[in-house]
Structures are given as structure tokens and as C-alpha cells.
Amino acid sequence: MSGDHANENALDTEMKVHSLDNESLGGTDENAGENLVFDEAKTSRALALWVCTDDLPLQIIEEPCFLHFVHTLNPFAKPGNLKMVKAECLKIFKEERVKIKQALADFDGQISLSVDVLKTPACNEYMCLTAHFIDDGWEVKKWVLSFCRVWEVDEDVSKMLLKCISDWNIENKISTITMKNNSDYDALVKILKHRVQEKKKLQLNGQLFRVYCCADILCSIVMDALDEIQEIIGEVLDLVACGRQTPFWHLTYHALKEVSELNSMGEFFKDEYHGVEIPPNDVWNKVGGVVKLIGSVHNVAKSLFETKYATTNNYLHNLQDLRASLIPESMSSDSFIKPIAEKMLQKFDKYWNDMFLLLALTTLLDPRFKKKYFEFSSLKYEDSDGKLQVTAVLDAIQTLYDEYATTIDESEKSMSKSSAYFEGEDGDGPCPKSRRVEEGCDSSKDGFDWVQEYNQFTQSKGRCPKSELDFYLEDPVIPWIEDFDLISWWRASSSKYPTLARVARDLLAIPISVVTSYDAYLTTAREVDLGLLSSGRDIMGALMCTRSWKQSDSDKD
């Protein structure tokens, strides 16, 4: 069921307009409208539910067009006033919060957090804390847990974060936190990490805890390139009547690319173009070089942020392509482009080193890649450290798998189901424990000499039982599919790899970017929605949270 249908059903359930039975009253169709009974309380509830489910401003209930629409449906209807609907919104928030808190308490997986700081036109800042996880039904959840005003970034954000995770009682389930790559947040991450470690052991000794925002690093290296031609961007873009830059770097890139291509085609061969002075050749060379650099970044960003399935497994190979394109530019003979590319590569390499392990783990859990991708990439990119990296990644996934295997109750593993997949006709599957004991050596038996022991040793397969991880890695990679839904694949394979599927479920829920879609191209902080801002500070947080919870339910339907 679509989100729109879910909203219609919710409204139909919440807002029932009762009518008297015309036949019992002797009424006719002509006077049926006069017998309608209007319930103001139910109407306020329905309007509040609508506002909490869709991104509608509260003020819509006072708009003349909306009132006209309601009166057309029922001339006697009197929609609740703003105060009543606000009260209902807060009531819905409190009701839903109880349900969400219980759902988080019942959830037996890991929760990843993301923190974003949004700004208002008045330059006030609001912190948005979101929980990311994949539930037992393999549905991706993104629930806003807190949206509140920030007064002093350094001190207030850490206090608010600690209070929030304590209020939600999720300290023992947090696995990672994704934030912008600002060093100002280092102290905050350290404080949060310490709090979480008081409640639980972090995976891989906390190596994965801090997740650096990919959208942020891509934006940062693009701005490094644009800054080098900042003084000439305006005069170049004036030629196509778009001299003013936008806060979205991909739009600036497209405009520069367009004007550069027009120049290459001889469009600006005269000294002036529609009264605008044509820049000299050295300017065009600089613009062309920067456009080429940013084009490599844009191709990767498009693959990551404008795709249907933007899960963690898609990042490594795309970012490796970007790195491969920056390296030769950093060794360019062009004295203008070379230092720009070097700066971009240096900044990108730091991100690459910080994030490699997490991105590699999720790549390993993609059945199209597994170990094969690392073999391929080490040859393609002539990476001398490739073998060492593969070893480190395999050690990490083994450690993770072992940790999950020891914490998952044996009854939840469905071993009887998974063994059917793993037990081959040639007996290569895992040996039952009883069989291994029978085939082992019992030196306490009378008359059991070394010959018998040796014969039994040579006849036995002497193999250790294989784990789900072993079987998964040994299975052939599946054919390449462009729009591959990895979460659906693991959901379907969870009976075959019950423990490994739990590992995949938690890793794939980790957000690699704080923002996605077109917000990932923003060069400035995201702004608070004006409709939300107009609702008033007393209800902004409640609406932001409730909308994320209700929309998640609607998407599921």
C-alpha cells in the first residue's frame, strides 16, 4: 500500500462524520446534509494526524482555501482552531513516543546514529539526532529521536546527545555515529564513545564508531577546486546569464561545464558576446581543468546519492574510482591543476583511510563482490597494499562473525534449516559433533594401539566444521546487477546464513552520509523547513520526530 493510501486510511479511521439514518427519520436525499453531526474533537484529531504524517504547515487549517474545501464537504463543519490542533499534535507525539521507545527496547540489533545541525534564516541552529537500523522484518528505519535548538555547539550538543540517548535508553545498542567531518566534533564523539563503552563492548574495539560523512568530504574537495577559480566564475557564467552561484555545487559544475563546452565549440570566438567581454584563453584553460576535476567527483556523487538503493556497499568501488582519477591529475604537468588535485587527493586520502575498513566490510557482504572485488581492484589499481588490506578485512569480518555467533542464542540460529543448505552430497558440510567424537581418538580404550589410531586418522577427513561465513565466501559471486537491492538479498538469504545475516543487517544500516539525495550537494548547512519553523518552537521538535515515525509506517504500508 502506498503512503498516500495509508494516509487516507488513517484519516478515514480518525475522522468519522456520523450521519443519522435518513430512512428512520423519514428523511430524503435532499435534506440528508442537514442531518449530519459534526464532531469538532474528531476533526481536530484528524487534522493533527494529517499534519503529523505529511509535511504540512499547521497554518493550513486557517487558510481560506482549506476552509472553503472543508465547508464544501460539509457546510456545518467547523475545523478546530490552531490551539486545538497543536494540542492534538503533541498528544499524538506522546502516544507515538511510547510505541517507538518500546520498539527500540524490543529491537535486538545495533542502532546507528547520525547528527546534523540545521540553520534558520536568523542563523539559529537546531540539532537533529536520527536513529538508523534495519528491523526484524528487514525494513530500513530512520527515526528522528530529537530535534532541538542548539545554543552553544561545543557544550550543548554533547549534553543534549547524552541526555537523549539516556532518555531513549539505547546506550547499550549504539554501534556508530555519523557526523560532518568537522574537527570541532572530535571531543563530542569521544564523550559519546566513552558513555556507550560503559554500557557495552563496541564492535572491533570501536574502530567503526566514528563514521565520517561522505557527502561532506566530496563537497569539501569540490569547494577546494572552486575556490581556486572563485574570482573568474562570475565573469565566465555571465556569458550564459547565470553569473550568480547557487548553494548546490553540482549546479555550479553543470553551469561551468556548459559554458566551457560552448567555448570549445567556438561560441565565444569574438571579443564580446551579447555585450559581455570574453575571458582570455588562460581563464578558459583553468575553468576546463577544474571542470574535469569536479566532473570526477560529480560522477561518483551521482552514483551514491541519486540511486535507488544507496546502501553502504555501493561506496567503496565508487570512491576507489574517484581516487584513481585524482592520482594522475595530482601528477599533472599543468602547474595550475597539479596543486589543486594534490590538495583534493590529500584530503580524500585521509577520508579513505578513516573509512576503508567499514566500506570494505560491507563490500565483502555484497554477493556480487565478496573477496573477488579486492583481487580485481588490487590488479586494476596496481595496489601494492591490496593483499594486506584483504587480510585485515577478512580478519575483521571473522571477528565480527565470531562475536555475533557467541551472543546469538542457539535456538534462534535455525541450524536445522541452514544445515540443509550447507550439507552437500559429498559430505563437505559441517560435521555433526557426535560424528567428530566417534571419528576422534579414544586412547582410553583397551587394545587401541597406534596402528588403529593411524588408520583412523588416515581414513577420517580431518576437517574442521565450516561456518556460515566460510560457505558464504566460498560460494561463487552472483552476476552483476546494476540496481541491486542488497537488503532484500540478505532478507531472502537469512535462513541460509542466519548469523551472518545479522552482521549484514547491522552494517548495512549504518549511514555513510548525514544527508542524501540533492541535499548532499549543498555547500551550506541545511535550513529548517519554513513550514516547520512557522509552527512554533514549542511544537517543532514533536512534529519533526512524529513525521519521521509516521512516514516510516506509511512507507511500510
What would you say this structure looks like, in words?
The structure is a single chain. The protein has 557 residues and is α/β, with parallel strands linked by helices. Among the domains are: 3-89, no CATH class; 213-429 and 461-523, no CATH class. It has helices spanning 3-14, 22-25, 40-53, 64-73, 82-106, 153-168, 186-199, 214-227, 230-237, 249-264, 281-305, 315-330, 337-364, 372-380, 386-407, 415-422, 433-439, 450-459, 468-474, 486-493, 498-508, 530-534, 537-556, and strands at 18-19, 36-37, 111-119, 125-134, 140-150, 174-179, 210-212, 272-273, 276-277. The strands form three sheets. Strands 5-4-3-6-7 form a five-stranded mixed β-sheet. It has a two-stranded antiparallel ribbon with strand order 1-2. Strands 8-9 form a two-stranded antiparallel sheet. α1 packs antiparallel against α3. The radius of gyration is 30 Å and the shape is flat. Keywords: DNA-binding, Metal-binding, Nucleus, Zinc, Zinc-finger. One of its GO terms (molecular function) is DNA binding.
List key phrases describing it:
about 550 residues; alpha/beta; five-stranded mixed beta sheet; two-stranded antiparallel sheet; 23 helices; 9 strands; about 55% helix; disordered N terminus; zinc-finger; zinc; metal-binding; nucleus
Topology:
Layout lengths: L2 H12 L3 E2 L2 H4 L10 E2 L2 H14 L10 H10 L8 H25 L4 E9 L5 E10 L5 E11 L2 H16 L5 E6 L6 H14 L10 E3 L1 H14 L2 H8 L11 H16 L7 E2 L2 E2 L3 H25 L9 H16 L6 H28 L7 H9 L5 H22 L7 H8 L10 H7 L10 H10 L8 H7 L11 H8 L4 H11 L21 H5 L2 H20 L1
Parallel strand pairs: 3-6, 6-7
Antiparallel strand pairs: 1-2, 3-4, 4-5, 8-9
Helix pairs in contact: 1-3, 1-23, 3-5, 5-23, 6-7, 8-11, 8-13, 10-11, 11-12, 12-13, 13-15, 14-15, 15-21, 20-21
